[in-house]
Amino acid sequence: MLWPFNHFRKPRLPPRGTIEAIYGMIVTQAREPLFYRDLGVADTVNGRFDLLILHLWMVLRRLRPMEGGEGLAQALFDRFCEDMDANLREMGVGDLTVPKRMQAFGEAFYGRAAAYDLALGQGLALTEGMEPLARALGKNILNGGQIDNARRLAAYAEAAIADLAAQDDAALLAASWRFRLPDSLQDLEAAQP
Hints:
By secondary structure, the chain is mainly alpha-helical. Helix content is about 70%, strand content about 0%.
């Protein structure tokens, strides 16, 4: 029997295990040595944070438009925030400073996500390919330099976005997919236009 007040209930949240599995894949991919060894990403707290944001952005942009995706995307972002909070506390940041740092993390995420969305849109609209995304990644992840590595990183992001787009919604919700792991730089270079 349908109850007339069912629409007042809170929406069902995705299972916690799904969020943990997806977030775990994002963190694992952001720690992939290839990015640091071969693509020039600094193996520092900031470098790892920037790669974490890149992978989180790619997954969130795929999840949001699907049915039930907004709740999953929000839960995934909340998990990211919990992780950042826990990392700050583990590094010894005091209770009074954590909210300011968390605000800075949020601003960093939204700023980079907006830059990547804009760059991706420009590349597609202006038939520039991945060059706008390469410039955005170079600025945010590679400290404004290393354009060749930024292009390789953009080619990787393009391939990962395509892989995510090819997954059906059920696979995404079940966390039964994996990020692409290029075997070598030749794989990334072959993907470039």
